[in-house]
Structure formats: C-alpha cells, structure tokens
Amino acid sequence: MNSQNIVRRSATNALTPAPHVRDHQMEVAKLIDVTTCIGCKACQVACNEWNDLRGEIEENVGVYDNPRDLSPDSWTLMRFTEHEDEETGVFEWLIRKDGCMHCEDPGCLKACPVPGAIVQYANGVVDFQSDLCVGCGYCVAGCPFDVPRISKKDNKAYKCTLCSDRLAVGQAPACAKTCPTGAISFGSKEEMKDLAASRVAELKERGFEDAGLYDPQGVGGTHVMYVLQHADDPERYAGLPKEPKISAVVEGWKDVLKPAAAVVGAVAVGAMAAHFIGVGPNTTEEGPHPGGGAPEGIRRKEAAKASTADEDNQTEPGSQA
Fold first, then answer.
1. What is the pLDDT of residue 271?
2. pLDDT given at position 281
3. 108 labeled part of a ligand binding site
4. In the chain, which ranges are E strands?
5. What is the pLDDT, as a whole number, of residue 56?
C-alpha cells in the first residue's frame, strides 16, 4: 500500500494524510458465511502459498484443526467445533475461518509502543510493518481476538494482512479468490453488509431465527465479518467473543501512561539541560597527576589512611612486647 493511504500509525497521533482521505477511499471487507463453508481448507493453502508460509509439521492428535493454532507461519486457520444443544439435543458441526479481524478500532495498534510498527490504511486494513517491530508482544495483549503471534526465529509479530499487496493492485485476497463454495466474499464494506443481510434473511426463512451478522461494535466494527446461524451465541464457534472490546489496560496505556511517560521524559531532559546551563558539566576538582597515576587529592587521602593504620599497630610505651 502507498504510504499516503495510511490514516493511523501506532504510538503517534499523526495522520497521513488528513482524516478526510476516507471520503475518497472505499472501505473494504471480507464476508465469511459459515453456513456455506465445507472446511476444505483451500483458503489455508492459498494463504500459505501467496505469502510463502511454511508451517511446522505437527502430530495428528485426532482433531481436524491442522495446524492446531495460528502461528507466525499460519495466518489463517479453519476451526472445527462439535456442538450439541442441551435443550434440543441437536448436534451441529460448526466451522469457522479464523484470522485477523481488521478492527476499525484496532487494539493491537493502540497497544503498540513503536511509532509506525502497526498501521491502518484508508480502506480499513490493519497491517504490521515487520522492519519496525521489536517483538515486545504488546499487540498480542491488545488484541481481543488473540490473533497476532511472535516468531521465535526473528522476534517479529505476524498476522493476516488481508493481502494488502494484492489489494494495492486491484486483486481480491487469495483466500476469497480460492474458496470453491463462495463462503468467502470480498468487496466494499457496504456491499458486504448488503450481501450479509440477504443471506441472513435466507437463513431465517430456513428456521434459523437467531441468524445474524457478526460485526462487533465494541471494536468499532470489523473489516472481516461473519454470517452466523447462531449470532446470539458466537462463542460456540470456537470461542468467537460475543462482545469483544479493547481492554482497559490498553486504553489506559494509550490515554494515560503514554502521555505521562512523555511528560516525565521531557521534564528529565529539561532538568539536565538546566543543570548543564546553570552549573556546567560534572567535573572532578583535580585532573590526573602530571606524572601519571591517581590525582594528588586521592593520593594524599590514601597516604593519611596508611599513616593511621601504622599508628594503630604500634605498641603503647611501657607495655610488654
């Protein structure tokens, strides 16, 4: 993405360009209809191939989740859940594509202490700038969806980029391009919300009264949305949070601790400057002895200590040796 499309940067309030840039930039979104997903994992393969990711070989432990979790080398993951309704006894096989949600109000960006290490583009995509990342892990703590992962190889944070490089040249994300059932759609957020409304209406006609769109407002909405047949209970889809929001700790860091740290730093620098101007640099009273060795003052103190020690070791007059 062109740097001129960046509207937010981590650890800074600067906007480049001004906020009104969004008046001329289409906000995009990816819509995932879990009711038409068959769990084929074509999206996983497409993501790995496009981003040249090679995950570690894992042991088969009897579940369909493979790999078992997101990682620095696995940015998207199919999660499978066997759910039985306690009231009706109906058994369901629920599948969800997991990855970065690209929040409109991203907790990772707010938590990051490094200027520009995390950016948000005018189209809504949240992206990591790995060359600036220091691997502190604050983005992991700040994400209400537990998505970013820190690599042990280079100590950098990684996650889905929503194929920002493809978007920059007018292409859809690799996962959306590959999906064989049309479960993943991509376009403007307005178009995706309209598409979601039509699919939700179809689900309700089929008897899923609680069907709805997952676009949580606790994070300002997301640029990855789900159509759920049980939108009233998103947690049954492998722990998708019902009301995700940025933690108070992250908000405190952004609104209180960051400014306070800046003030303390400024005061410290000011105090040092005032001392230098008013008193001058810290110097010793005596410089090095011309003949080498310790300064004269230090040598006099050492000689006095030696003399005192000699006097203490002498026997008093009249005492028996």
1. 67
2. 60
3. yes
4. 6-9, 28-33, 77-84, 91-98, 118-121, 126-128, 149-150, 157-158, 184-188, 212-214, 224-228
5. 80
Helix (H) or strand (E) holding 208: none
User: For residue 100, which of 70, 121, 141, 133 has the smallest C-alpha distance?
Assistant: 70
Which CATH number, 3.50.50.60, 3.30.70.20, 1.10.1060.10, 1.25.40.10, labels domain 3-246? 3.30.70.20
Q: Is 72 annotated as a binding residue?
A: no
Q: Apex CA 69: angle with CA 67 and CA 74, to 5°?
A: 70
As a whole number, the mean pLDDT across the chain is 85
**Per-domain boundaries in the chain:** 3-246, 247-282
Q: Is 299 annotated as a binding residue?
A: no
pLDDT of res. 57: 81
Enumerate residues 6+ apart whose C-beta is below 8 A from 219: 101, 103, 104, 105, 106, 107, 144, 244, 245, 246
Q: Which residues contact 42 (CB under 8 A, 6 or more apart)?
A: 178, 179, 180
Q: Is 183 annotated as a binding residue?
A: no
Backbone angles phi, psi at 198, to 5 degrees: -70, -40
- pLDDT tens column, 268-305: 556 666 766 776 665 544 444 444 455 555 555 556 55
The token pair that represents 83 in the structure block: 């759910």
pLDDT band at 317 (very low <50, low <70, confident <90, very high): very low
Consult the annotation and say whether 159 binds a ligand.
no
Distance CA 106, CA 91 (A): 35
Q: Does 47 appear as a known binding residue?
A: yes
Backbone angles phi, psi at 210, to 5 degrees: -95, 10
pLDDT digit string, tens, across residues 230-255: 999 999 999 999 999 998 888 776 66
User: Does residue 97 register a pLDDT over 80?
Assistant: yes
Tokens in use for 255?
Answer: 């609104």
- To the question of whether residue 112 is assigned a binding role by annotation, the answer is yes
